[in-house]
Design a protein that fits this description.
The complex is a heterodimer of chains A (130) and B (245).
Chain A: E1 13-21, E2 25-32, E3 36-42, E4 52-59, E5 65-79, E6 82-89, H1 95-107, E7 120-125
Antiparallel strand pairs in A: 1-2, 1-4, 2-3, 3-6, 4-5, 5-6
Chain B: E1 6-14, E2 18-20, E3 23-25, E4 28-34, H1 40-43, E5 56-59, E6 65-66, E7 69-70, E8 81-86, H2 92-101, H3 108-132, E9 138-145, E10 148-154, H4 181-189, H5 198-205, E11 208-214, E12 220-221, E13 231-239
Antiparallel strand pairs in B: 1-4, 2-3, 4-5, 6-7, 8-9, 9-10, 10-13, 11-12, 11-13
Helix pairs in contact in B: 2-3, 3-5
The chains are: A mainly beta (130), B alpha+beta (245).
Amino acid sequence: MAESPERRQAERLRVFGRARIDDGLLAYVRDLSEGGARLSVITDDPLTPGQSYVARVCLFEADPVELECGVSVVWTERVGVFYDVGVRFEGPMQDALVEALSRLERTGGERRGEEPIRGVRVELLPNPES
Amino acid sequence: MSPSRSVGTLIPRRSEPLDEAGGKCHAFRRRLRLDEPAACGYHLPIACSSFGGSGGERNFGFDPIHGGAPVGDDLLMTAQRTRFSFEADVSSTSICDCVHALDLPLDSTSRNLTRYALIELLMNAVRASAETGAADPVIAEIRRDREGVRATVTDSAGGFDLGCLPYDFSSDPETVDISSSAFEAYRKKHDNKRFGLGLLMVRRAVDWFELFFVDASGEPAPWRGKGSVQGTCARFSVHGNERAS
């Protein structure tokens, strides 16, 4: 299977969050950008590209971010137990989303240039049987 | 060559934008700043082929285009075993970045599910550590072998009551009805900030999973209520054909 298609040109921030779609389907929020998001939807049926929904999103940061927005499905692809979905935000950018992106930009390691990712140490080890 | 470990921090470094597939996409390079000399050729069989010397900073291999899609922000961290220590105040964005920095020798679907499982378990552990004020960091060890990937996530957050989940944890995860009233009540109780689905979906996503509690010496210990265990250990494995996609 090929890597999932991505349509968004804006930089995407990897995030961890939950979403409810139309008060029914549950999903994980995988990334977020100004234009849209990637969701992993817990469903056996694919969402239809072009279809619009209301998504209630909760991102888990030190200060959780909650927002509700209209989204339209751009692409969908089966990924194991999920359907991964690329969605485009509909309507004007909400202040909560702008604020969330700004905050994630500040906390995200990639955006801090040469600073080490805070709060993480990494060790590289051989396998025991090596 | 000595199998000594290498310890360091990940340093993100933004690269120049790439003009790919008709549009601009940013790619990122990460470096591992090593605190100790590295026996590179031993435990970094691929990435270290271009390394030299010992200690200091190392630029990892960089693959801006992979399979026709821009994945330039994937660090080719090809160590056989990688161990992360996460403090309780680490951001979820940083956790996601670290997990995506791993080069997982799996097909696309298995790789995505492995990342999901790791992030889910790490977020659970980090959140529990923050809530309980756990003194020790969350430890994640990811091991690559011919079979695929095995991972262990351990925290010192005091464990939790499996009976508080909105389903019977001992049941077959495939048979659990996530639209049941128990899940709805759980979501309502937690103001839709928790779905009660994390462990269940991890179990559905991976090939093998186990969860147990540990005592202060890291040995398995039974849950007998608050204060009876030191923390939680979750293990899973995912099999998949390397680069099959």
